[in-house]
Specification:
Number of helices: 12
Order of helices and strands: EHEHEHEHEHEEHEHHHHHH
CATH architecture of the domain at 6-163: 3-Layer(aba) Sandwich
Helix content: 55-70%
CATH topology of the domain at 6-163: Rossmann fold
Strand content: 5-15%
Oligomer: single chain
Largest sheet: 8 strands, mixed
Length: 280
């Protein structure tokens, strides 16, 4: 059981996913969580009603007494948000940034405090169902108990790995954005089912079961996806006919370019943000 209070600055999808997953895990109670945002009071009301957390536009009320403070705003809002809560944060607290493209050093600079404890985390919205894959990055001088606090929190909503901060770009491009790519593939399954005359009520559970079954095969057989794919792909069979279309259209390269472009964009966001900070 987590001892203490956590505060979220920002009330978007990732904040809600973490709140839902942490509460569902039983590791933290709703009355230990506070959330605040810039101006969307209706959103705060929704989160309070749905999860029983303290949802308030009063940053002081949300942050004071919190042992962990999550930065969950958009990159473009981070400077203003930190400026508004700078005096409310102290060196005993752990700051966990969920903001893509904003480095630990930049966050410390914005807080005007080199000694605050900052960890960057890249979870996914699958935290909602406790199936996230979260990458953590932090400097070597962060206290061990702080890194363990972050690790334990994110382990309640999925798997966790520590990476170097520069590796977060690739982790974001591949896995942070990963659920969206999978949902995109599922959309194409649904589109094809409709085009081929399969009723939605049948298609939906069959698509889900196909995905669940495939993941279970990977996990339980410990065989590579290539090996498992070949077992399904008979020469001159239906699967081979479908795979040949994907190969002709160079879908594998499209996926690779998708991951690369998302990673490049993560680096661009960091560079853009650092330029803005220097201009100020």
């Amino acid at each position: 059981m987590f001892l203490g209070k956590v505060a979220f600055i920002g009330a978007g999808s990732i904040a809600e996913s973490l709140i839902a997953g942490l509460i569902d895990s039983g590791y933290i109670e709703s009355d230990q969580i506070a959330i605040t945002n810039k101006e969307d009071l209706d959103r705060l009301d929704v989160l309070h009603t749905k999860y029983g957390v303290l949802a308030t536009s009063n940053r002081q009320l949300a942050i004071t007494g919190a042992s962990v403070v999550f930065l969950a705003m958009k990159p473009k809002d981070v400077a203003v948000a930190i400026e508004q809560c700078r005096d409310l944060v102290n060196e005993k607290q752990l700051i966990i940034s969920l903001v893509a493209g904003v480095t630990i050093d930049t966050i410390k600079e914005l807080f005007e405090n080199e000694n605050i404890n900052v960890i960057r985390a890249m979870p996914t919205t699958s935290s909602l169902v406790r199936k996230s894959a979260t990458a953590l990055a932090y400097h070597d001088n962060i206290p061990f108990e702080k890194s363990q606090t972050a690790k334990r929190l994110f382990e309640r909503v999925g798997i966790v790995a520590k990476v170097e901060e520069d590796e977060l770009h690739a982790m974001t491009g591949l896995f942070g954005s990963g659920p969206a790519y999978i949902y995109y593939v599922i959309e194409q399954f649904e589109r094809a089912a409709m085009a081929l005359g399969i009723h939605r009520d049948i298609a939906k559970p069959f698509i889900q079961q196909t995905l669940i079954g495939s993941i279970s095969m990977l996990q339980e057989t410990n065989k590579s996806p290539l090996t498992l794919r070949k077992k399904v792909t008979s020469p001159n069979g239906t699967t081979q006919a479908g795979i040949s279309i994907l190969e002709d259209r160079e879908v594998a390269n499209s996926f690779l370019n998708c991951f690369i472009e998302a990673t490049v964009r993560s680096r661009e966001i960091q560079e853009e943000y650092e330029k803005i900070i220097k201009l100020k």
